[in-house]
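## tool: complex_structure
## caller: assistant
## args:
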Amino acid sequence: EPEVTQTPSHQVTQMGQEVILRCVPISNHLYFYWYRQILGQKVEFLVSFYNNEISEKSEIFDDQFSVERPDGSNFTLKIRSTKLEDSAMYFCASGITLSEKLFFGSGTQLSVL
Amino acid sequence: GDSVTQMEGPVTLSEEAFLTINCTYTATGYPSLFWYVQYPGEGLQLLLKATKADDKGSNKGFEATYRKETTSFHLEKGSVQVSDSAVYFCALRPSGSARQLTFGSGTQLTVLP
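## result:
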């Protein structure tokens, strides 16, 4: 079965550094998402992306965050200047249409020191 | 706003025991309801869903019934197996919308042989 691939599985960075989390969605999917889960808390929506633009974002997704689909296969989440509170598991997801079924990657655990 | 409240974990059961994981929600209208499962080292996978009141979602021996009157979508399985050990997430998507999922905090299930 096709799957969403995320790299790296673990990322450790210093506060204030930029990080880029990478995702390869399923090839024929058109809708892309980032979610995150801070340890012990709920999985939270960050942003959705369609037709090369952001279609919706949450209040968490401030100016420090950006997303990009640079080459038609990768989907990246950039955090420009990481904060301690950005430490979380970040999940990428994709879907063929705006139907209910999303396919999730296994996540990138980001640790900001 | 919309929210999902899940039974606190972790839950530890013996093989062949009966499982219930409680989930209640707050939302306007008739949201679609979902259970996602995350096995160790993998992404979130859709386990089952229900899109209207009194619908029963089922998959792999798991069931959940959409109860509008109690705003609940409890997950049940009659006889759990060691391979069911995972984290289970209840989620909703607002009615008439293709917006993002709102997740509960997840419930860790461990099944002992």
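## assistant note: Chain A touches chain B through 27 residues (CB under 8 Å). Residues 86 and 112 of chain A are 7 Å apart (CA to CA). Handing back to user.
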